[in-house]
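Complex record, two chains
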Amino acid sequence: GDSVTQMEGPVTLSEEACLTINCTYTATGYPSLFWYVQYPGEGLQLLLKATKADDKGSNKGFEATYRKETTSFHLEKGSVQVSDSAVYFCALSRDKIIFGKGTRLHILP
Amino acid sequence: DVKVTQSSRYLVKRTGEKVFLECVQDMDHENMFWYRQDPGLGLRLIYFSYDVKMKEKGDIPEGYSVSREKKERFSLILESASTNQTSMYLCASSLAGGTNEKLFFGSGTQLSVL
């Protein structure tokens, strides 16, 4: 069946470092792909999405490109801030939404 | 601002108690969902509803039931709470129109069953 695999955390970086959180998926057909973020004490909120191959989603300095050839949707940011500390979830949507297990990100000042 | 409200942020219950978790959304969304979130397991879908009085089982429905008597309210019921139901419970809603729609989440209820 469909599945999402994302890199395990926690990931710890210094402020202004580059970030990549890997996400790969297994699905038949053409799912939509999402990144959700969960800040401490809050529910998840949509960060960005892409609905077809080669689409790039972007928001708040984060980007992810839908790569069908590698079945990947890696999350990237060029310069992270302390306020980016959160748990990040990759997800796919076809007939239902499937979430990865989440990656906790710590940014040190 | 759009809002999904869960009635309790923290809840402590005893084994065998009947537990109600309430969720209300103010966005006139058709779809509502209950997830549980556990460390190392991510989010797992318990139940969902695409319309009033309609419900469908998710991936882990055992030990749970739901009620949707009004469009804005979706309740999760633990008929007889057990310690393995200690978890963070997240409610979400979305517009009708398939699974490409953005999910809006509540802040969660951390349930401890002793």
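Note: Chain B has no helices and twelve strands.
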